[in-house]
């Protein structure tokens, strides 16, 4: 975790986050100056940001929104007041509507982002100032400290060379807490191909099989929010095992970038999981990240104990063989 400290100061009406990264200041600056890179970390897991208008120059306006796993959008607006590239920029930070008009019912604050060189890289400082103590307490109660910490925790991936960071390391599973698991897998392939492999039934049937000896008997899916889906598998030949399947609803679709869906095992009396799939591409490498939200720790542990990671890696290796290198 690159974040070294997060402090709040009621007297100064401020919150300050500090983080350190093993890269040159110019590279860290680029992560903020390029809206496509900024989208990859600005927003905690499950609430990724999308930047529409983006003008990082004095007098410029930046409009963005975060989309929840349920598809709800939360809009914000930055009015840029100062820029000293690649060292700092200052914005008036406000909530907004879908058209980028500032929401005056919630007082706007000030955010100052500063980047400075240190012995082994760069130090990032994000200073957020509120106009009143009530406004500071309001944004803290809304989870600003936790959200900012989680967002900056994702910056490592954006700054890393994906070939060194994830390529060739297979499927990686990280338990985040009692109900959240993060799974990553890198592919030396363009994002649009990996997206197609997850959304087109004729392609999915070629790789989404798990261990050898199984076939996909049902693949009904549309990359359209609000539509149901259903998958089923069965053993082939002498392979032992009982047929099984999953079903649910596709909740959020951001073509070639993100898809959120609920997931339940067909016929099982378990509450649904929420699967949040994102794809990020850099220099010809696509990083797949899957955040899974389980209803409870017991269901998380039960599913992980089935060998889920190994089964996913078998499928992803087949994806590479059948669709990427074929």
Automatic annotation (TrEMBL):
Name of this chain's protein: Uncharacterized protein YndB with AHSA1/START domain
Domain Activator of Hsp90 ATPase homologue 1/2-like C-terminal: 23-159, 189-323
SUPFAM superfamilies in alphabetical order: Bet v1-like (SSF55961)
Gene3D superfamilies membership: 3.30.530.20
Family: Belongs to the AHA1 family.
InterPro entries reported for this sequence: ASHA1/2-like_C, START-like_dom_sf
UniProt-listed Pfam families: AHSA1 (PF08327)
Top-rank taxon, per record: Bacteria
């Amino acid at each position: 975790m690159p974040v070294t400290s997060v402090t709040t100061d009621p007297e100064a009406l401020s919150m300050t986050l500090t983080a350190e990264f093993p890269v040159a200041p110019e590279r860290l600056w680029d992560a903020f100056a390029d809206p496509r890179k900024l989208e990859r970390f600005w927003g905690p897991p499950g609430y990724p940001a999308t930047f529409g208008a983006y003008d990082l120059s004095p007098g410029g306006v930046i409009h963005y929104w975060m989309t929840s796993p349920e598809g709800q959008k939360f809009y914000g607006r930055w009015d840029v007041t100062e820029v000293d590239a690649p060292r700092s920029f200052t914005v008036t930070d406000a909530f907004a509507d879908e058209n980028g008009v500032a929401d005056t019912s919630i007082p706007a604050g000030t955010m100052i982002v500063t980047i400075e060189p240190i012995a082994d890289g760069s130090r990032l400082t994000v200073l957020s100032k509120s106009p009143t103590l009530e406004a500071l307490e309001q944004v803290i109660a809304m989870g600003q400290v936790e959200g900012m910490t989680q967002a900056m925790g994702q910056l490592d991936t954006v700054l890393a060379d994906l070939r060194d960071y994830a390529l060739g390391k297979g499927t990686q599973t990280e338990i985040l807490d009692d109900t959240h698991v993060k799974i990553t897998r890198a592919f030396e392939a363009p994002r649009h191909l990996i997206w197609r492999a997850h959304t087109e039934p004729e392609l999915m049937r070629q790789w989404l099989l798990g261990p050898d000896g199984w076939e996909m008997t049902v693949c009904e899916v549309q990359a359209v929010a609000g539509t149901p889906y259903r998958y089923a598998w069965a053993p082939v030949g002498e392979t032992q095992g009982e047929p099984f399947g999953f079903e649910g609803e596709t909740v959020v679709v951001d073509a070639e970038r993100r898809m959120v869906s609920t997931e339940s095992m067909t016929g099982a009396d378990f509450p649904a999981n929420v699967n949040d799939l994102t794809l990020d591409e850099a220099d010809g490498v696509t990083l797949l990240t899957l955040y899974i939200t389980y209803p409870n720790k017991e269901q998380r542990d039960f599913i992980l104990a089935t060998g889920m990671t190994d089964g996913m890696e078998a499928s992803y290796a087949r994806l590479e063989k059948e669709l990427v290198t074929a």
